[in-house]
Amino acid sequence: MKALHFGAGNIGRGFIGKTLSESGFNVIFSDVNQDIVDNINHNKEYSIKIIGTNEKNIFNIKDITAINANNPDIIKIVASVDLITTAVGPNTLDKIALIIVSGIILKIKNRSIKTLNIIACENKIKASSFLKKVVLEKLPIKYHDYLNKYIGFIDCSIDTIIPSVDKKDCLFLIVEDFKEWIVNITQFKGTLPKIVDMKMSNNLDAFIERKLFTLNTGHAIASYLGLIKKHKTMQEAISDKKIRVIVRCAMEESGSVLIKKYNFKKNDHLAYIDKIFSRFENPFLSDRLERIARNPVQKLRKEERLIKPLLGTIKYHLPFSNLIKGIAAALHYNNPNDLESIYISSLIKKQGLKNTLIKICNLCENSNVIDFIISEYNTIVQTIK
């Protein structure tokens, strides 16, 4: 079995590539970073350190290869593999779609009826369904029947923390022992792949939102509040008593939406929050806040980790004051090296905060929640000092 993975970054090497290799796949990485591609092809392996509350042993991923995503030969690989996975960031899926389209067309020309399953492992709700939509838009209509018969796009929820590390070995990673990869069993084509620790589910929405409303919501809020107070890492931010309380309470607010919507047992979900919070506290996994905070426009979309749980609290008449603090902090985020941060700051200056919220978060103009966010935006820096 062969797998092509787009994105040889932290998640790609530290989780997806490792899992597929352990599952017996011949893993081919694809990336636009030629240095990483060259290092993989030269070494044919890389090392990761797996840690929990205590450091653990080094684990080696072997017998791997890589190809630059801009290399025309990648089309042949797409046309021949059994599985494609991605961890490239949601904004890059459009480019990946073009490569996949060319690969599908080559499969058809080769008269291949070998099924191909594609799993987009991105911080975007139902990223694989989004990728399928983009592929269908770019693929000639005459090939759509083939795609629907032989190409599966499988939505998933993926959860692990892999911080950046400064090492001479550019392939080395530190990864946590906690990992969760849940996929929609109904979307596969052909025989189900046997992948280590992958959980098949026909109720993926609940797992997607559990992870989004807990890990992603807490992570984002801690990063934006932490950066306002000049903290550098997640451990610094979560050790700040005022930030710690806001993050924990925000996770409980978003959790109350999940409990109401999916009938989660309250004690079970609070235990899940405890587990996520302990992962934030792990000094071995402390990540840079700027990395966690990047791409704030995406994080402020209506269907994303900050606004969606807030709208859920309003729908079910639940508390939301700490979620509001996190959203206001995200709007305060100012990083000259982050294009989305620059865009938000510019939009606020030109159009005002209310119009910015309407444009980015797709909130209704007469929504009371806008007033709450604006009020918190104007006071948050002083309240957390």
From TrEMBL:
Domain Mannitol dehydrogenase C-terminal: 203-354
Residue ranges constituting the Mannitol dehydrogenase N-terminal domain according to the UniProt record: 1-195
Keyword Nucleus: no
Entry keyword set: NAD, Oxidoreductase
InterPro entries membership: 6-PGluconate_DH-like_C_sf, 6PGD_dom2, Mannitol_1_phos_5_DH, Mannitol_DH, Mannitol_DH_C, Mannitol_DH_N, NAD(P)-bd_dom_sf
Keyword Oxidoreductase: yes
EC number(s) from the headed UniProt entry: 1.1.1.17
Binding site for NAD(+): 3-14
Record GO biological process: mannitol catabolic process
Reaction catalysed by this enzyme: D-mannitol 1-phosphate + NAD(+) = beta-D-fructose 6-phosphate + NADH + H(+)
SUPFAM superfamilies named in the record: 6-phosphogluconate dehydrogenase C-terminal domain-like (SSF48179), NAD(P)-binding Rossmann-fold domains (SSF51735)
Any matching Pfam family: Mannitol_dh_C
CC per GO annotation: cytosol
Molecular function (Gene Ontology), one example: mannitol-1-phosphate 5-dehydrogenase activity
Organism domain of life: Bacteria
Family that this chain belongs to: Belongs to the mannitol dehydrogenase family.
Protein name, per record: Mannitol-1-phosphate 5-dehydrogenase
Species in which this protein is naturally found: Buchnera aphidicola
Taxonomy of the source species: Bacteria, Pseudomonadati, Pseudomonadota, Gammaproteobacteria, Enterobacterales
Gene that this polypeptide is encoded by: mtlD
